[in-house]
Amino acid sequence: MNQPVIPTRAVFVPLVAGVTALALFLTGSGQAEVSAPAATPPVIKSANDPTKPVPGGVRWFGRMHNDYVNQCKTRKFDVVFLGDSITQMWPGDHFGKNFGKFNAVNFGIGGDRAENVLWRMENGELQGTEQKVTVLLIGTNNQGMNTAEEVAIGVTAVVKKLQANCPKTKILLLGIFPSAGTALEKTKTINGIIAKLDDGKMIRYLDAGAKFLDAEGKIQPGILSDAVHLQRKGYDLWAEAILPLLTEMLGQ
Fold first, then answer.
1. Residues identified as active-site
2. Pair 205, 175: CB distance under 8 Å
3. What is the pTM of this model?
4. In order of start, what are the domains of the chain with their CATH numbers?
5. Which residues of the chain have pLDDT under 50?
6. What is the C-alpha to C-alpha distance for residues 43 and 96, in angstroms, rounded to an integer?
C-alpha cells in the first residue's frame, strides 16, 4: 500500500519557524540576530602575488638572508632598515654617520619585493627580536608586476607580519620613492593607500621621497644614479627627512 506523500512545503515552514523561535530565545531580544557578512579578502588578479611568501630570485639572496638570520641570533640592535636594493646600497660611512648612534643595522637585499621580505621573516629574520624601530621601505620592485592597489596590499602584508613577529617594535613606514621607471601617479596612489596604516603610535608613515622632487613635481638632478637607485645626494635627503621622526620614535 502506497504511503501518502507529504508536501515539502509543509515540513519546511515549521522548521524555519522553529529556528527563528530558537534564535529569539537565545538572544533574549524581540529580534533574531543576523551575523554580519564576512569581509571580502583582497583579490590579487596579477600573476605575481605580493602576499605569497617566496624567496628572492637573485643569486645573492640566500647568502644575505642567512647573514641576517645569524645577526638576529647573535647581536642586539635598536633600529633595523628593512627593504630592497635602495636600502641595501646605503653608503656604509654615510649610514654609520647618520644612524650608528642609534645602534642600527641594514637588512636590505637587492631585488626584493614584498613577497620576498615576507619569506625572509617567515624563515628566521626578525623573529622575536627586540629592536625599537623598524624602518621599512618596500614595494618599488612590485610596481612593474602589480597594480597600485596590489602593491599596497603587499606592503600592508609586510607591516602585519612585522607586527606579528615583533609586537613591541614601532614601524617607520616609508612611502615608495619616486623613480624614472614608474609613473609618479602610480607611486602616489600606492603611498596614499599605505599612508592610512599610520596609527600615530606603533606605525608612523613618512613620504621621505617628496624631498626628491622639485617645485614642478619632477625628480631633481643628482638624486638618481639610474632609473631607481640613489646617489649620495638622495641618501642625504633620505636621512634628513627621517631623522627627526626616527629620533622621536626612539624617545630620544
1. 85, 226, 229
2. yes
3. 0.84
4. 61-249 (3.40.50.1110)
5. 1-34
6. 41
